[in-house]
Amino acid sequence: MQKQRHIGRAQARAWRRGLPLIAPLGTILFLLALWQLIASLELISPILLPPPAAVASAFWKALADGSLLKHATTTLQEMLVGLGIGLGFGLALGYAIAKAPLLESLLSPLIVAFQSTPIVAYAPLLVIWFGTGLTGKIITTAIIVFFPALVNTIAGIRSLQPSLLDLFRSLRASRWQTFRHLELPAALPIILAGLKTSSTLAVIGAVVGEFVSARYGLGALVIAARSRYDTPLVIVSALTMTLLALALYSLVAYIEWRVLAWRRRSST
Questions:
Q1: Are residues 144 and 183 located together in one domain of the fold?
Q2: pLDDT value at position 83?
Q3: What range does the domain containing 181 cover?
Q4: How far is CA 197 from the centre of its chain?
């Protein structure tokens, strides 16, 4: 009897661990079934909402002729380069502002005014300045990911307890030692949370730039498919954008899990 109880508890624990993985899959299957039902009953015109089979056919066709991979690779390149540039500037400027309140007073009005303007307003101007190549899309992506990185870096650095800073000063720690052993570990959780936000925004920045003017990229593929009323291909492009965003977000979440392993060990 005791053994059966032990087995039952082990199965319950295994079920609780697997539930976070099973639940999203169940949601996806439910949405697919609902989509197929709507398409079968023709509650919505197939031109507006094609059945899943038509979307799957468009996916395999675009994958077979190489067009989907070509456009997705272009968008991914813009995302990664723009994300790197935006994060670099956001982290550096955020740290400088956190350490120098005067710099915040000087730059805050400009930063807030710049960020409050929708990115679609800047995208055409960037195309005029940098042309229709990758540069304009990369800069658009960098702009949209810059602000979350900036704000989270400032919040992370300023979250330090003054007593800890006083302790490091009393130990005559250098600026580098203070940054490496105190400021960076304390700010990392907040900075990485901002990085997860920025990773999803990178897709938006790249695609907005492609919507304005581009020959390649998922945004350009959407424009081309829309002009032909090829709704299945539009959906394929949108789902590919979603997959890219999820992949990048998952990568950042994994990095966060590995980098912050020391916090989990210290809490146990």
A1: yes
A2: 92
A3: 52-267
A4: 5
Tokens of 30: 């439910």
94 and 117 both lie in a single domain? yes
CA dihedral for 38, 44, 47, 48, sign (positive or negative): negative
The predicted model gives 218-236 an average pLDDT of: 88
**Placement of tokens 């089979």 in the chain:** 53
Between 64 and 28, the more confident residue is: 64
Same domain, 167 and 195: yes
DSSP 46-66: TTTS--HHHHHHHHHHHHHTT
% residues pLDDT > 70 (the chain): 88
Quick one: pLDDT at residue 101?
A: 79
184 and 68 within one domain: yes
pTM: 0.79
CA angle 244, 250, 251 (to 5 degrees): 90
- pLDDT tens digits along 114-171: 777 777 777 778 777 887 778 888 888 898 898 888 888 888 888 877 777 777 777 7
Which stretch, 90-94, 179-183, 189-193, has highest mean pLDDT? 90-94
- Exposure of 65 by Cβ count < 10 A (0-12 exposed, 13-18 middle, 19+ buried)? exposed
Assign residue 177 a region: left if phi > 0, alpha if psi is -120 to 50, beta otherwise? alpha
Asked if 20 and 106 sit in the same domain, the reply is no
- Residues in the chain, how many? 268
Number of domains in the chain: 2
Are residues 151 and 184 both part of a single domain?
Answer: yes
